Amino acid sequence: MAISEPVARPVAADRTGVKNPYSVLPNWLYPAFVVVALSLFGAYALWVVFFQPLGYVMPYLSPFDSPPITLGRIPPAIWVAWAPLVFRLSCYYYRKAYFRSFFGHPRSCAVPEPKRRYRGETAFPWVFNNFHRFAFYATVVQVGFLWFDAVIAFDFGGRFGVGFGSVLMLANVLLLSGYTFGCHAFRHLAGGDLDCFSCSLAARARHRLWRGVTILNIKHDRWAWASLFTVAATDIYIRLLLAGVLHDPRWVS
Ligand code: FES
Fold first, then answer.
1. What is the pLDDT of residues 116-151, one digit of tens each?
2. What share of the chain is helix, strand, coil (3-state, %, to 5)?
3. Is the CB of 83 under 6 A from ligand 1?
4. Helix, strand, or coil (residue 159)
5. Which residue among 93, 133, 176 is best mutated to probe the pocket of ligand 1, counting the most ligand atoms within 8 A of its Cβ?
6. pLDDT tens digits, residue range 211-240?
7. Where are the domains of the chain?
8. Are 82 and 69 in contact (CB under 8 A)?
9. Cα(135)–Cα(38) distance, rounded to whole angstroms?
10. d(Cα 241, Cα 247) in Å, to the nearest integer?
11. 246 CA distance to ligand 1 centroid (A)?
């Protein structure tokens, strides 16, 4: 007699009263969090990019303005902030999060699409998400500048020191690096098209890189949220210093 495995039934939707078996939290909480957090960050980022001057207080430079490019009256963040913003907008994790949370498109795995003519990311405007890999290249360059800024953030007029801003900038670039180098597209670049991981020196090196990227990639969503928070926090902190609202605690040798 053939013994068959019980077939997992697709979870219909939370409107049917089905509970998420992986979480004790109510079903609405995660999409609500995504909508609120991404809306707030998006609005704040647009305000900084289009309406704010250079976010610089010696020795701190805002991540929105790095590298600093000032040309006439054009806000400096316009030249650089597009890369990390497009990178996040086209990130595989954020795509899942905002498709589900903003559009219910679909609400979850194994839930029917709400629209009849679903064309995924083959039509305007979502087809542009396929350029994620190119946004990755641009963001890697920017992360390099942010590491430079983080080192400079410990230089107080030629003397080594630590300010609260130094710590914030270092934490920010660490989290951004974890997010950027755990990218799914980078993981594919590292080892995606290799048929044999041990057949040559180059293949073995790529395998090691792929394993490293995989470690970061497993918690890609956590890196994404943590780095989003520190980017906003670092910029807000620097702008509050700039406005004279805050005083930076420092320990300078
Ligand atoms: Fe998230 Fe590339 S998939 S940054």
1. 676 778 888 888 999 999 999 999 999 999 999 999
2. 60, 5, 35
3. no
4. strand
5. 93
6. 999 999 999 999 999 999 999 999 999 999
7. 26-252
8. no
9. 19
10. 6
11. 34
Q: Given its phi and psi angles, is residue 246 left (phi above 0), alpha (psi -120 to 50 degrees) or beta? A: beta
What residues contact residue 134 under an 8 Å CB cut-off, 6+ apart? none
Which DSSP string do the residues of 171-200 spell out, in sequence order? Answer: HHHHHHHHHHTT-HHHHHHHHTT-S-SSSS
Distance from C-alpha of 213 to C-alpha of 24, rounded to nearest angstrom: 30
* CA pair distance 21, 11, nearest whole angstrom: 10
Task: Report d(CA 245, CA 240) in Å as an integer.
Answer: 5
- Measured CA to CA, the distance from residue 147 to residue 140 in angstroms comes to 11
Which tens digit of pLDDT belongs to each residue from 9-35?
444 445 556 667 777 888 889 999 999
CA-91 nearest atom, ligand 1 = 1
Q: Which residue has the tokens 């979480």?
A: 23
State both tokens at 144: 């390099």
Cβ neighbours of residue 89 closer than 8 Å, sequence gap 6 or more: 129
Residue type, 196: C
Q: If you measure from the C-alpha of residue 238 to the centroid of ligand 1, how many angstroms do you get, rounded to a whole number?
A: 27
